[in-house]
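New to this. Explain the following:
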Amino acid sequence: MPHDVPLISTIAIAFGLAFIFGYIADRIRLPPLVGYLVAGIIVGPFTPGFVADGGLAAQLAEIGVILLMFGVGLHFSPSDLLAVRKIAIPGAVGQIGLATALGVGLAWLWGWSLGAGLVLGLSLSVASTVVLLKALEERDMLNTAEGRVAVGWLIVEDLAMVLALVLLPALAEVLGGHAPGAAGGAAGDHGAGSDGPIWLTLALTLGKVAAFSVLAIVLGPRVVPVILTNVARTGSRELFTLSVLAIALGVAYGSAVLFGVSFALGAFFAGVVLNESRFSHKAATDSMPLQDAFAVLFFVSVGMLFDPSILIRDPLAVIAVVALIVVGKSLIAFGIVILLRFPVGMGLAVSASLAQIGEFSFILVGLGLSLGLLPEEGRDLVLAGALLSITLNPAVFAGVAALRKHLQAKRPAGVPPYGWEQFEQLQSSLADARHQAEEREKEHDLQIQALAKTFPVLSLLDAHEQERLMMLFRPKSAVPGERIIRKGDRANAMYFISSGAVEVLMEGQTIRLGAGTMFGEMALLSGQRRNADVAAVDYCQLQVLERRDFNQFTARHPALRTALIDMAAQRRKMNQQDAATDEAVAASESAA
């Protein structure tokens, strides 16, 4: 067996160290992300000992970026954003603009170019979704008004950064860098470099993005659900997970090759399209382990790029960056919330939530380096700022909580807090959004309950399996007189009558079946051809279970198969008794 296996050694050591330091970070009440970055520093070229393969780590990190952006799109909720739009949209846009301006100012003081300052400012302006969600969950704030605003604010930041990822390659040469793919450009960056006017470059870039967006939004919802429905019918969990990953990676790669947009944008749109299908929850659940695994590799690879000596070489610059993230951004966010006439408590909570940076900052830094816009020192400063701001974030939350208690204690009794009217309106919008979400969930649950109520035999299945069966059903309608089954045909499906009625014509007998009954299972169970004609006598709504799906599903649920066999036997016996009765009546009538 060969021992030169850099891919295996890189992944094995990265996962091993990430687990150790992630666990340590969690035990000292820090986000595990800090541990992943430290693991990357240890296996990086700037520290002694084992050095992981940087090229392989970069490619694994690219997959991590794709899956991170896919997850952002998959969890993107327009309704949640609309509920907090009055504060989240102007707040996030204003905060990004002002924080970026501060970053440009810092870069100017250090003698950097405008392009470097722009990349630095954007990198420092966007907070980490991973860190924010964990911080809110630990403090039971995720479903509070403050938590929903912070998440909505971050959604807008993420969308703005997606736009930045699109525009930076087009503007790179104007800002002092080089076109994507030129010397020093990173493999895999596909953008529109330009030898012509900047307006033409921008127009071409935005045109490609628009073409891809239209194609994804128009074609995606028509194609993706069909693919996932067919895969779900196989009953194979691994095939479903594979299909989700194939869509995420395939759309990301195809968008880069065919439209020249970034992997990140393609993956984001793949997630948005999938979010609109009824399989979004299952897709998120099944793909989460792989998303988490490659996200860990992404953070480890980012840590590998960090040169810890920057803390000694340029401590003042590190302090300035951390101050901008923890103090500058927080003050900007707080001021915007107050200007929008929302309560002080909400301003403090949002400020604490945004006083850190993370994954999007690393993606922007990587893009800035590949375009020749940002010096390597800028990368080290951003990584140092991320490590320190994430480490300080629990202390920031604790300080904000103490300050809120102090301010509440000092407020005179009976005096409403500043911004309470806006806060009440926000609470009402959030309640409406929550009610709509609950209604959608309730409607889905009622569909499952109605299925078991209409077809009692399905009560043998639990709710999860009933939901799986619903995914296998193919809706079919029939008009009066329409022949649904012909005698002598091969058995290809079982039919569940949701509404309407049918008549079964068999050996001179006519048997009427109404809503809540089923037919076609006898031939499927026996393997014989159809022995009766079935025609609709009313407008019917049917749920059709194809032969393959029937065999696979009942094989996994022997109790259901046994119940269907018993029902078929009882129906056959009743048919025989009815036939015997009819024959006796006919004989007596003829004798008379």
